[in-house]
Amino acid sequence: MSKELIDLFYLIAAVLFIFGLKGLSHPRTAVRGNFFAALGMLIAIVVTLLDKRIISFEVIIAGIVVGALIGVVMAYKAPMTAIPQVVAIFNGFGGGASALAVGAALEEALKGGFIEAIDMQFTIAAVSSGLIGGVSFTGSAIAFAKLQGLITGKPVLLRGRHVINVALILICIALSVWLVVDSTSSMPFWIMVGVASLLGILLVIPIGGADMPVVISLLNAYSGIAAAGHGWVLNNSVLIVAGSLVGAAGFILTAIMCRAMNRSLANVIFAGVGAVVTTEVESDDIYAGRVKSASPEEVAMMLEGAQRVVIAPGYGMAVSQAQYAIQDLTNLLESMGVEVDFAIHPVAGRMPGHMNVLLAEANIPYEKLREMDDINPTFRHTDVVLVVGANDVVNPMAREADQSIPIAGMPILNVDEARSIVIIKRSLSPGFAGIANPLFVADNCLMLFGDAKKMAMDITAALKQA
Question: Could you say which of 29, 289, 336, 407 is the most buried, measured as most Cβ atoms within 10 Å of its Cβ?
Fold first, then answer.
C-alpha cells in the first residue's frame, strides 16, 4: 500500500475520531458518535497492519484475540458502579502500552531496525511518552485500587512527600537529557520509566476519594499525551491525532471538574486534599440524637401533597441500581400532576456524567436532568427534595471558610433551601470526603434509612395505596 493511500485512510480515521468526539457531547448523538470513533479506530488498525513494515502477523493476531476476550469479559462483568474503575485501569493500560511500545521502538532503532535514525524528534518524543506513560500506568493502578477498595480510599500522606516527588521529577529530567544527548543505549530510558512509575504511585496515593474523579480525568489526558508521543516516535499521523484528541479532551474535562469542585489542578495533584477525615466521635457530636427518621409511608404523604419535587441522585443510587425504581416513582408522581426534575451535580458519583448515564439507562428524559447552576436557584421554590444516595455534593459544610475541610469551597446542590428534604441513605456513614453532613440534622430534613432501590419501590407502593 502506497504512502499516499495510507495517509488518505489515516485522514479519514482522524475525521471520524473528531466526529465521534463531537457526537459524544450529547446523549441523543452519543451512540452514533461512539460508532464513528470505533469505525475510525478500525480503519486505522487495518491500514497500519497492511503497512509494508509489518512482517509477521502471528503475535499481532494473538494479541488482538487475547485483548478482545479480556475486553468483552470486562464489559459484560463490570457493573455500572464499577465503570470508574474500568476507566481508570484502561487509562493505565494505554499509558503503559505507549511506554513499552516506545521502548521497543528504541531497542529496534538501536539494532538498525525499521526506524532509520534516532534523531532529536525521536528521542524527545520517546522520553515524553515514557515519562508520562509510566506515571499514567501506576497512577491509574492506584486510582483503580482506591475505587475498588483494595487499598484505603483515604489520603496516604508520606512524610516529605513533596521533596521526594521533586527529586524523582529531577531524576527523570536528568535521565531524559542523558538519552537525548547520548542515544547509544536504552538504559536511561528504562530507568526513567521505572522512576516515573514510582512517581505515579506517590502522586496519586495522597489524594482522597473525594477528588478521585478529577484524578481519573487527568490520567486519561496523560494516556492521550503518551499515545501522541508514541505517534511522533513512529511517525504515525493517526496516532498523533488520536492521542492529541484524548489529551485535549481530558485536560478540558479536568479543568471543568476542578472548577465544579473549586479546586486548582496543582491543589488536587500535589496537596493531598481530603486529608482531614471526620472521626466517629466528631460525627456523634454533630448528630447527637438530632436525626429525624421517616417511613416510606410518611414520605409518600409528603410527596402526595407536593407540587414540585426535585430528585438529587448520588453514588448510593448507582450502588443499589435504583434508577429504574426512581423512574417508576417519577412516572407515578407526574401522573398525579407533580412537577419532577433531577438535580445533577458535576461530580456526583465517581466519574463525570455518572448520574446522567444511569438515568439515561432508565429512559429518564434528558430534559429533566438539570445541571447544578441551572437548578440551584429553584430549590427555594421546591416542596420536596428527594436525595438518593448523595452526600458530599449536598453537604453545607462546603460553604465554610475552614480550608481544612476536604470539600471547602466546593459548589454544592443547595437542597437545604427547599421546604422539605428527604435523604435516602443506608446509614449516617460519611461520603468520599470522609466528613459528617450537618444537613442530616437540619430542621427541614428527614432521613429514610435503607437501600435506595427498596425505599423507592416502597414509596411508590405507598403512593399507589393512598
Answer: 407
